[in-house]
Structures are given as C-alpha cells and as structure tokens.
Amino acid sequence: AAAYHLQGEDVLLPPKAAEVLSLAIHELATNALRHGALTHEDGRIDVCWHLQVQDGQPWLGLHWCERHAEVEGWEMPRQRGLGRVLIEQRVPYELAGSGELRFGPQGLDAWIRFPLRERDSLLQTDAPDTGPLG
C-alpha cells in the first residue's frame, strides 16, 4: 500500500503564500495519484518543511519527495503541466522564492522556498472599505 509521511513545525502562512502553496501541493498530490508514486504498490511520499532565517527574514523551505520501484523505459515528461508552472514560475514570481522539480525513474523531488512576508492576494482577508457612505 502507498504511504506518506509529513514532517515539520506549525507555520502561519500569509494569505498569498497559502494561495500559491495550496495550489502547488494540490497539483503534486493529484499527479502522484494519476502518474506518480501512488500508482505503485510500493509508492511513498515524504513531505518535510522547515523555517530558516535568511537576511533577517523567515523563509519556508518545503521538500516533496515521491519514491517507488524503478520504472523501466521511463522518460522525462515532455509537457509542462499546471503543477510545473505553479512551482517553477508562480513561486518565484508571486512569492519571490524558488521552485524546482526533478523527475527520475524512481520518482519526483520538488523543492519550494520563499520568504514569509505579506503580499497582495486574490483572497480577501478583511472586510472591504465601504467609505463614509457605507
């Protein structure tokens, strides 16, 4: 049976970071179910995260690691799916961080790093200002 392991401390994410990270994790999990570790009897997913200080600012580092028995005839994915775009493009652009994916015949590694600071979000977190007439 497939298994997973999560390891890391509680982290309070700013809304924008929660928005982008939840989309990325959803895509990773969906792809693991359709094409990755969770399609293999021996498949396993390990997710760990940690906080570190860089230039006086807290950063979150997350590592998603999928492993399974080696697949014969494995080929690198040719298409750049939504998950790849989220991790490699949206994380750097929207969170001022970095995202990297590495595919191999025994699984996938994804690294996501970004500073924990407030940014504009599509998710509204407070009531709108209705002005003096509202």
Explain what this protein looks like in three dimensions:
This protein has helices at residues 15-34, 82-95; strands spanning 3-7, 44-54, 57-67, 98-104, 107-115. The protein is an alpha+beta fold and 134 residues long. It has one domain (13-73, 83-115): 2-Layer Sandwich (Heat Shock Protein 90), CATH 3.30.565.10. It has a five-stranded mixed β-sheet with strand order 1-2-3-5-4. Helix 1 runs antiparallel to helix 2.
Helices and strands, with pairings:
Elements (H helix, E strand, L loop, with lengths): L2 E5 L7 H20 L9 E11 L2 E11 L14 H14 L2 E7 L2 E9 L19
Parallel strand pairs: 1-2
Antiparallel strand pairs: 2-3, 3-5, 4-5
> Could you say which overall geometry the principal axes of the C-alpha atoms support?
globular
N to C succession of SSEs: EHEEHEE
Structural class: alpha+beta
Q: Please write the CATH class name.
A: Alpha Beta
Task: Name the poorly predicted regions.
Answer: none
Number of separate strands: 5
Comma- or semicolon-separated keywords:
134 residues; alpha+beta; Heat Shock Protein 90; 5-stranded mixed β-sheet; 5 strands; 32% strand
Quick structural overview:
With 134 residues, the protein is α+β, with helices and mostly antiparallel strands.
